[in-house]
Amino acid sequence: MWTTAGAQDTVAGVPARFVAAPASTEEAAAVLAAAARDDLAVVVRGGGTKLDWGVPPRRLDLIVDTRRLTGVVEHAAGDLITVVRAGTPLAALDLPGQQLALDSPLPGATVGGTVAVNTSGPRRMLYGTARDLLIGVTVVRPDGRVAHSGGKVVKNVAGYDLGKLFTGAYGTLGLVTECAFRLHPVPPVAAIVRRTAPADRIGALLAAVRAEQAVPSAVELDAPAEGEVTLAVLVEGTAAGVRDRAARLEKVLGGPATDEFPPWWGRYPWDSVGMKLTVPLSRVPDLLGLGAAVRGSAGTGVLYADVPVASAPAVVERLRAAAVRAGGHAVVLTAPPAVREVVDMWGPVAGLALMRRVKDRFDPEHRFAPGRFVGGI
User: Among 166, 150, 147, which residue's Cα sits nearest to residue 158?
Assistant: First the structure.
């Protein structure tokens, strides 16, 4: 059922004892039922692209690897729906004429891992995040019981929405084995309008883009720790529509339109210490010039920061204070052990008592990814 772990089988530096790689929901249920009987602490691994996110597990016995839980179960093209196994790499999805509009900032990321931490890329502005596109889910609870939620129609509202609950829970509530997603047609034409300007001009430029109502798919910002900031606005659609909207944005931004994406598009900016910052749209400029390179969605107020290791405690506090003053949040997603020991990874989190009650209900023994999530969940 499981094999002895190797030297590479670690999570945030914590070694596992065993590894299991089920090929179906039924096999996964049997693995987790046996793990529950043996009181094994479990962490789920997909592509391994985000295993260093969050806090190291308090204990780790078994890694459940989803590399065999792959493939498209169903593609209902007429309904714009697909059902996909959780271990499927996002980049491997081939849905002719249609797309699962989730930009993965990390090559190799799987469907399940993307849902587990609710990662998203530039086009979340138009299409939403994994939580918005997920309409049904099959999960295996920590005791080995299988549960289903949602369905294969967009307006299905029957039952409790487990998908929303499991999305962004960092794998602390159970194992996602299959996901049903809403799809979108692939737009035939795209264009990007760019403008580089001093940081003190960015607020006005962003306001002008919003006022133009050009319905962009993404408004991205790339700001080094010092120096000028680049804005890139993506519009998609028919050739005539894109041409008209791009021309309007060229006038607003004073920059050229192109069909070439900048090299930094949709990529996290960090080398070692990475933060996620959320603020209202009008307060995005408040996060610039605070000692970190910042990149991300100026159109949704979700940005990511590259924090220098040498000054991490001070810069993390500075960015968190700015985000909180603006009515937002700031969390440290990934950091080396020396930084984890001296910074608060999560910061203040509303609703922590409720989150703990949910954890207690789904995983009363606290065996699934123990301590990985906020508040030691």
Answer: 150
SS3 content of the chain, % helix, strand, coil (to 5): 30, 30, 45
> Do 187-264 and 1-185 have the same topology in CATH?
no
Q: Please state the φ and ψ torsions of residue 333, each to the nearest 5 degrees.
A: -80, -45
For 8, the token pair is 């590479």
Q: Is the dihedral of CA 163, 169, 173, 177 positive or negative?
A: positive
Collapsed DSSP state (helix, strand, coil) of residue 30 = helix
Residues 110 and 88: beta-carbon distance below 8 Å: yes
Residue 71, helix vs strand vs coil: coil
pLDDT of 311 reads 95
- Residue 225 and residue 53: Cα distance in Å, rounded? 23
pLDDT at 153: 55
Q: How far apart are CA 347 and CA 4, in angstroms?
A: 36
C-alpha span between 326 and 284 (Å, rounded): 9
DSSP at 50:
T
Q: How far is CA 54 from CA 103, 137, 292, in A?
A: 21, 24, 20
Top-tier CATH class for 187-264? alpha beta
Q: What span, in angstroms and rounded, lies between the C-alpha atoms of 146 and 143?
A: 9
Q: Which CATH class is domain 1-185?
A: alpha beta
pLDDT recorded at residue 349: 86
Give all strands of the β-sheet with 42-45 in edge-to-edge order. Answer: 3-4, 18-20, 62-65, 42-45
pLDDT in tens, 14-29: 999 999 999 999 999 9
**Which stretches of the chain score pLDDT less than 50?**
none
What whole-number distance in Å separates Cα of residue 87 and Cα of residue 82? 15
Instruction: Domain ranges for the chain, please list them.
Output: 1-185, 187-264, 268-364
- CA-based nearest residue to 173, from 187, 156, 160: 160
Whether residue 36 contacts residue 14, with contact meaning beta carbons closer than 8 Å, is answered with: no
CATH topology of domain 268-364: Alpha-Beta Plaits (3.30.70)
